[in-house]
Design goal:
alpha/beta, binds 8-iodo-guanine
């Protein structure tokens, strides 16, 4: 038998990831004082301030206080989760200021833990946002794009054992239509997740294009699969923070990513607030 601390360590093969998610949800309930949250919101690169317009923050919890969570690994991400009132609807959003990426090497269980904790906390919808590279030249940095489908090139999965799960319409057509009502100029695209942390070579970007991809990034697909397994309805929104390697003449930089996020904060914040208000 393992002790309680070991059971909460998602890298311990003896841990039950769903039990750790339940333990996390118990802490979230206790710290926020509410029995359930409704919508989980994962803020990716460039989306940091976009969560602020959703509503008033009623509680802030350090990730490190919640079983299975670790502190933020990427500059520009915050290591907290917040309980946010969704306008005056009476519903609550659980807003994650950061996520665990697959390239951090903490395992897929850690990557999808926030999703499973949100489901255990009562959420029925998740909005996955990210910053990514764009494969279409017309998408200038700062353009939000709805994710219509994905290609998972990580060779990893959050599913364990013979868990056969259908991924048709993984990114909810209903929620995409809702987002397009809010902003009719929103394009859609197929998101390709690479393992990272290096950005792609121009040849890899051409490969992604040939495979049917429109967006390249290092997150989201594993979380979407876990969210489907948990029965959540999923909305994915990418912020094109840079043209993917080889699409434009300039090399990629993390600084460019942060600046594109800051420039797009207003538009993305409004989009997110309006969509979450309608969910
Ligand atoms: I922000 O161009 C951001 N994240 N893989 N490629 C990949 N991830 C990204 C990129 C990009 N931009």
């Amino acid at each position: 038998m393992t002790d309680t601390a070991a059971v909460h360590d998602l890298t311990d093969p003896a841990a039950d990831p769903f039990a750790v998610a339940e333990a996390a949800a118990a802490v979230i309930r206790e710290r926020t004082g509410v029995e359930r949250h409704d919508v989980a919101l994962v803020l990716g690169s460039g989306w940091g301030q976009a969560g602020d317009l959703v509503g008033d923050t009623l509680a802030t919890i350090e990730n490190t206080d919640v079983p299975g969570f670790a502190k933020a690994a990427v500059a520009g991400h915050s290591g907290t989760m917040r309980s946010v009132a969704i306008g005056d609807t009476g519903r609550r959003a659980l807003v994650y200021g950061t996520r665990t990426h697959y390239y951090e090497g903490r395992g897929v269980r850690a990557v999808v833990h926030g999703i499973r904790a949100a489901a255990a906390a009562g959420c029925t919808t998740v909005v996955l946002t990210n910053g990514c590279g764009g494969l279409r030249p017309e998408w200038s940095p700062g353009t939000p794009v709805l994710i219509s489908d994905h290609i998972n090139l990580t060779a990893a999965t959050p599913l364990e054992g013979a868990t056969f799960i259908d991924l048709t319409d993984l990114y909810s057509p209903r929620l995409r239509a809702l987002a397009q009502e809010v902003d009719p100029t929103l394009d859609e695209g197929v998101y390709v997740q690479f393992r990272g942390p290096q950005y792609e070579t121009p040849a890899e970007v051409r490969m992604a294009r040939t495979l049917g991809g429109d967006l390249v990034g290092m997150s989201t697909t594993l979380e979407a699969v876990a969210a489907r397994q948990a029965g959540l309805e999923i909305l994915g929104i990418s912020l094109v923070t840079n043209a993917a390697a080889g699409i434009s003449a300039t090399p990629l930089s993390h600084q460019e990513v942060i600046e594109a996020g800051q420039a797009a904060a207003e538009r993305c914040g409004r989009l997110l607030a309006d969509v979450v208000g309608l969910i």
